[in-house]
């Protein structure tokens, strides 16, 4: 249980001072604020549901790191697989060479994670979510070119979408703060669908809202505006996560699929968060029973213990590119794309062990079984001071707060800090607190997370 957890090995406690932190430029962090904090959040160890700080405090992980350590921290079999692999084959070039685990892992993802009827049966390995998004966008363009349809250069993303930080993902993403400084370099030909979230109509819905399926028709308007023959792909998170857990209105994703089908537009689901059990299924595609042409993933692919990402792709897309190969025996490269760390042996070993672990511990079903309890816990926060919405689906949830007048994000940040001081890690995005616990979370853990948020909400100004 939560109360009796202890660190995996004895730790000498240390504290980190602002001098120690000078050289590091911390990503997506208010560096000045963090470095001036009296007790900076610095983590030394992790096991199962918990982190331990350098000064020895135990923290219950309500967010699976950054929505990623779905199997919990440092599971022994995955640790061992990584250790064995790095001592056996540390690295293998992924261009022109292969190693057995990359083939094996791709096969197993296709046969064990993905639903066979979907024909998502080709796997391209990347390094992370951002590189998966870039890869899926490039595959989409290359596919149309290979079919002699090279006028399709436009992409359609969505407001409040997050697709990582590459120029492709930023361009189709819909978060102003992420784009502002780079606005001069957004890729051309991108439109954004409206976000489906509607505060008045959606507040306190559980799972998929009933209202808003018709918003998918906006895609039809964009097709009429630009002409289908200019549109390469639509990219969406089935459930936008980073902008505050926004479950899709019932019927929305299915209608988007229909419109794409009618116009030969590829559909990309960005499942960097929703993949690998977050909704109690292998993918959100399976959960919603809507099949895209490409799925991007990362995070849960290796339980985030080694960086890696992947793009799952329908066989016909791969085949279209293979059919461009001249039959004269020349060494023709079908897709001019790849990374030094694609198919990294240590990542492949971690991935195989992660997939085994999900299966052996029955973690996707477990997530599905505990989701209703999580939902009840989340919605018990309704009515507490400053709470304006609670949303959830699977093991993703969010509590949205009324911002301090004139100081957006501050209330959310203070709640995150207070919860951490009180032993629980939650994720802050603006004035929304998001939760995505590891799939091993217990009812007792959920109680602790919810009680901690509740207690600290009452203390906030
Ligand atoms: N897409 C989605 C939907 C994400 O949530 C994220 C990361 N949270 C990314 C892409 C980017 O992944 P990474 O940070 O691994 O590049």
TrEMBL record:
PROSITE patterns: AA_TRANSFER_CLASS_3. Pfam families: Aminotran_3 (PF00202). GO terms for molecular function: transaminase activity. It comes from the Eukaryota. CDD domains: OAT_like. Belongs to the class-III pyridoxal-phosphate-dependent aminotransferase family. This is Uncharacterized protein. It comes from Cyclostephanos tholiformis.
């Amino acid at each position: 249980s939560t109360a009796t957890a202890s660190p995996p090995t004895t730790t000498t406690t240390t504290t980190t001072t602002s001098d120690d932190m000078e050289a590091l430029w911390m990503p997506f962090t208010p560096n000045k604020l963090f470095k001036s904090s009296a007790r900076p959040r610095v983590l030394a160890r992790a096991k199962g549901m918990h982190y331990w700080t350098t000064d020895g405090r135990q923290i219950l992980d309500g967010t699976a790191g950054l929505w990623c350590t779905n199997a919990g921290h440092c599971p022994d079999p995955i640790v061992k697989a990584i250790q064995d692999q790095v001592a056996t084959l540390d690295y293998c070039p992924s261009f022109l060479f292969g190693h057995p685990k990359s083939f094996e892992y791709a096969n197993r993802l296709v046969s064990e994670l993905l639903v066979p009827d979907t024909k998502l049966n080709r796997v391209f390995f990347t390094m992370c979510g951002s590189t998966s998004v870039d890869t899926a966008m490039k595959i989409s363009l290359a596919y149309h070119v290979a079919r002699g349809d090279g006028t399709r250069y436009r992409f359609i993303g969505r407001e409040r979408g997050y697709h990582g930080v590459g120029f492709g993902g930023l361009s189709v993403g819909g978060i102003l703060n992420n784009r502002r400084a780079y606005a001069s370099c957004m890729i051309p030909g991108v439109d954004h669908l409206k976000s489906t979230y509607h505060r008045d109509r959606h507040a306190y819905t559980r799972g998929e809202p009933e209202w808003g399926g018709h918003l998918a028709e906006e895609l039809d308007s964009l097709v009429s505006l630009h002409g289908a023959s200019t549109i390469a792909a639509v990219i969406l998170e089935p459930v936008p996560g980073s902008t505050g857990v926004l479950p899709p209105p019932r019927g929305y994703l299915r209608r988007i699929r229909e419109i794409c089908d009618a116009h030969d537009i590829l559909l990309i689901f960005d499942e960097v968060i929703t993949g690998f059990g977050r909704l109690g299924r292998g993918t959100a595609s399976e959960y919603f029973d809507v099949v895209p042409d490409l799925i991007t993933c990362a995070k849960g692919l290796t339980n985030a213990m080694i960086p890696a990402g992947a793009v799952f792709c329908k066989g016909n897309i791969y085949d279209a590119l293979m059919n461009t190969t001249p039959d004269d025996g020349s060494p023709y490269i079908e897709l001019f794309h790849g990374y030094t760390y694609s198919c990294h042996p240590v990542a492949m070993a971690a991935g195989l062990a992660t997939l085994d672990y999900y299966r052996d511990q029955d973690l996707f079903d477990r997530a599905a079984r505990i989701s209703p309890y999580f939902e009840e816990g989340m919605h018990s926060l309704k009515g507490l001071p400053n709470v304006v919405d609670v949303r959830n689906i699977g093991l993703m949830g969010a509590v949205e707060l009324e911002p301090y007048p004139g100081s957006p994000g501050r209330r959310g940040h203070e709640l995150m800090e207070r919860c951490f001081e009180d032993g629980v890690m939650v994720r802050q995005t603006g004035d929304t607190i998001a939760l995505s616990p590891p799939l091993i979370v217990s009812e007792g853990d959920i109680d602790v997370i919810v009680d901690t948020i509740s207690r600290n909400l009452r203390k906030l100004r």
